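Cross-check.
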Amino acid sequence: MTRPALAALAVLALALTGCAPSNASDTGRPSASGLAPQTLSVYAAASLTGAFDELATLLEDQNPAVDVQVTYDGSSTLATQIAAGAPADVFASADQKNLQPLADDALVGPATVFAGNTLRIAVAPGNPLQIETLQDLARPGVITVLCAAQVPCGAASASLLANAGVSLTPASEEQNVTAVVTKIAGGEADAGLVYATDVAANPDRIQGVTPAGADAVVGHYPIAVVADSAHAEAAQAFVDLVLSPAGQAVLAAHGFLAP
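Predicted model, tokenized:
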């Protein structure tokens, strides 16, 4: 291996494992992790909750001086908040559409796609209404909820339904996919469209049915450091972790597709 390659590996190891010889103190000097005491604010799509909770803990384990706080919501809501000046350090969107305006305005740095996701029909455990197809979502008497159109899961749902030639009026349009899960799990709705990862994360609350054509509608998740982040080094360390083999393994364990 060449010396430049070895040096690059050493830099990557430092970013991911946070090894440095100095000690933490309340003066803001770097801790043993190499990062000074700080709170890192990550804004992430609601469907990333389980995986990013785990990754946040992993970064904190590697960098004990860093406290990672993750805000989860619909990507459109988070993008609007960042554009308005919310103090985010990292933005992980469930689609490029909601991140692109921030990139166009130089509010985020270069984005990298780190995961993919597909849709499932979500129903109550046991599937009491025997909902098996997208057409069943439009059956009389079936209460169906969807994500709002501006939310990535809503845009993907619209594409999936259009591809299948299904037209329906949902009982409600939710601002994030977690709200769709909550309504079905709570008995307020009979069915809805959610991500495969949401089904995997809620095995006791909902059941998933794979609709025809799901593999043709894949959501791609980009991540970027917010341009005016006050914690750019820690923000980049989190992004690097998400993109690393360890981070990709966590995402895969939660049901996400490779980027």
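Confidence is low (pLDDT under 50) at residues 1-32. The CA atoms of residues 96 and 178 lie 20 Å apart. Passed to J.P. for a second look.
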